[in-house]
Specification:
Layout: H1 10-17, H2 28-38, E1 46-48, E2 54-58, E3 85-86, E4 116-119, H3 123-128, E5 155-167, E6 169-175, E7 188-196, E8 204-212, H4 214-217, E9 223-229, E10 247-248, E11 271-278, E12 285-289, E13 294-298, E14 310-320, E15 347-355, E16 360-363, E17 368-371, E18 378-384, E19 388-394
InterPro entries: Glutamic_endopeptidase, Neprosin, Neprosin_propep
Biased composition (Basic and acidic residues): 67-85
Keywords: Signal
Length: 403
């Protein structure tokens, strides 16, 4: 877990941990992991957020990424000189995109140049988790992507995907909603997956989007998140900066912080643009939000299959259905409304694109749409000049047709 930052809470928490009987730890390994997580916060400039978050401004070389054995002793690399270019003059991809706002910057807070914002992990964040060892990670048996052979373990999807070629990135715009999540054991997210490998233990993924997760964040706000794994979520990778791996280079975006504003049913729509692509020169996978600066990168040597390229890209929504009281969860996907309601009401992805071998952005051709349980969460798509390839997706979960 995150261990590269100077300690905060260490003395006080160490004393409290030695006497508490309420911490859900099982053995010395979980206790050691908990203490390591609590030792993450630097005594540096801090920014307070209206939603209660604390953002620490951390020197880039002290960020969590550089605790990874393959990255130890390194510093963030320079941004690539060349970003993906729009092929064939496709104007749908060339629009000006809004740089997303976050709650912690609403009051004018910021981190100075030469630092990165890191959302502080608090004691109560870890205690909400079912396991300190698994804190910040997905359940290993829940694939998190639409498998071709199984959609078990309570994870349900409504996604568009492309497969069968060599992909070097993906881009889309998606609107952000305050989806209602029924219990702390569940979440609702909307994201891009960049995938390589089989759907066995060697699955590599890079993921980014927005997520409502009461267990992870302690509230019901939609938050910008990242994820990665090299072994199908078993032992590698994590959300955001909760483990070493992702290298952040941006001083304006805090990964894991709330996105503000959000879309309103029958009102203003607020969307964000996500671009993930593999730098042809150094091979790292970079993340960009809107038309602004890059957020950071996943180093190429973290991965096996994604060290070369991706063989699948997915766009869409995912929820956890824990079946409370034996019924389907009412946790919402997207806006909580079915795609047939259309613009201003349903959640959408638009301008779906992929990056080819020559660093060109191309329309996501031969896009396939699939919903695990259409009566609970559905998906419908199409094409027009303004939005390129697009789809509406989501739903309310439990209803008369989804008992």
């Amino acid at each position: 877990m995150v261990a590269s930052l100077a300690s905060l809470f260490l003395g006080a928490m160490h004393t409290q941990l030695s006497t508490t009987t309420t911490v859900p730890f099982h053995g010395k390994e979980e206790l050691r992991r908990y203490r390591k997580i609590m030792a993450q916060v630097a005594r540096l400039k801090k920014a307070s957020s209206p939603d209660g978050d604390v953002i620490d401004c951390v020197p880039p070389h002290l960020q969590p990424a550089f605790e990874h054995p393959k990255l130890r002793g390194q510093k963030p690399e320079a941004e690539p000189e060349e970003r993906p270019k729009v092929a064939g003059g496709d104007t749908t991809a060339a629009e000006e995109e809004v740089f997303p706002a976050q709650a912690w910057t609403d009051g004018g807070e910021s981190c100075p140049e030469g630092s990165i914002p890191v959302r502080r992990t608090k004691r109560r964040d870890v205690l909400r988790s079912s396991s300190a060892v698994r804190f910040g990670r997905k359940a290993p048996r829940a694939a998190g992507v639409v498998r071709r052979d199984s959609t078990s373990d309570g994870h349900e999807h409504a996604v568009g995907y492309v497969t069968g070629d060599q992909f070097y990135g993906a881009k889309a715009s998606l609107n952000v909603w305050s989806a209602k999540v029924a219990s702390p054991a569940e979440f609702s997210l909307s994201q891009i997956w960049v995938i390589s490998g089989s759907f066995g233990n060697d699955l590599n993924t890079i993921e980014a989007g927005w997520q409502v997760s009461p267990e992870l964040y302690g509230d019901n706000s939609p938050r910008f998140f990242t994820y990665w794994t090299t072994d199908a979520y078993q032992a590698t990778g994590c959300y955001n900066l909760h483990c070493s791996g992702f290298v952040q280079t941006n001083n304006r975006i805090a990964i894991g912080a709330a996105i503000s504003p959000t879309s309103v049913y029958n009102g203003r729509q607020f969307d964000i643009s996500l671009l993930i692509w593999k730098d042809p020169r150094r091979g790292h996978w970079w993340l960009q939000l809107g038309s602004g600066p890059l957020v950071g990168y996943w180093p190429s040597n973290l991965f096996t299959h994604l060290g070369r390229h991706a063989n699948m890209v997915q766009f869409g929504g995912e929820v956890v259905n824990s079946r409370p009281s034996g019924s389907h969860t009412p946790t919402q996907m997207g806006s909580g409304h079915f795609p047939r309601e259309g613009f201003n009401r349903a959640a959408y992805f638009r301008n779906l694109q992929v990056v080819d071998w020559d660093n060109n952005l191309l329309p996501a051709a031969s896009l396939r749409l699939v919903a695990d349980h259409p009566s609970c969460y559905d998906i419908q798509g199409g094409y027009n000049r303004a939005w390129g390839n697009y789809f509406y997706y989501g739903g309310p979960g439990r209803n008369v047709r989804c008992p």
